[in-house]
Design brief:
mainly alpha
Amino acid sequence: MASEEDEKDPFAPRRNPALFGHEEAEQRFLTSWRSGRVPHGWLITGPRGIGKATLAFRIARFVLANGHGTPDTGPGLFGDEPAPVESLYIDPENPVARRVASGGHSDLLTLERELDEKGERLKTVIGVDRVRKAGEFMRLTPGEGGWRVVVVDSVDELNLNSANALLKIL
């Protein structure tokens, strides 16, 4: 679910359709997508604040919007070739993008720090119980017939037990 901060901030990673400076990473993912051989996990690394989460949600929106498996590489119904996908951009008004932005897409799970029991502050780590829920989530059939996506924001916030649980899922 989107946090209160996300709801107020139009540039929160799950809402932000713009991405600058990550063209190479975007093209690397698109090359993999076009080949039909998308790895089951992607590790996006770099310093804090450069757009790793924005890129992850951009990939998630793209996969969920184009979701029924690998792209069709054959000719269309009338013999025309499908237009090559040049970007991961999904229009913010697209229903998938809107559900991702609100945190309500049934095939997307975000692992992030939660509020404490009092609901006042964020916990210091992502707990092992939350990561185990990701394992249960991945065992389910996709609700919309395409892919299931888990975004971990950020792996640095996993404790040792959570990290081990995540590695077992992968």
